[in-house]
Amino acid sequence: MAVSVVMPALEMAQETGKLISWLKREGEPVRKGDMLLEVETDKAVAEIEAAADGILAGVTAKPGDVVHVGHTIAWLVQPGEAPPAAAAPAAATARAVTALAESAPPRTGKRR
Fold this sequence. Notes:
Oligomer: single chain
Number of strands: 8
Number of helices: 1
Radius of gyration: 19 Å
């Protein structure tokens, strides 16, 4: 089963982190506890370890990217397994919400 690699929160009020470097290459085997990437916050640079054994795959962030905390930036997959498909792009989701709102009947009457 694929395990997501997410941008970690290293501080209480942290909203984003900057990926400094990947310490493993995509396609390379990773063991739980191996140092996987370096992340920078406003106050520090930290090495982040792998949460599971697997093969690094589906990398979506490159060094220098600023990523929101909790956002999936890669996957650890088992041999022969593909990373899960990416979530729907935000623009497509926004279009779907807009279309739904436009199709809703107008509200009438007074609010209390």
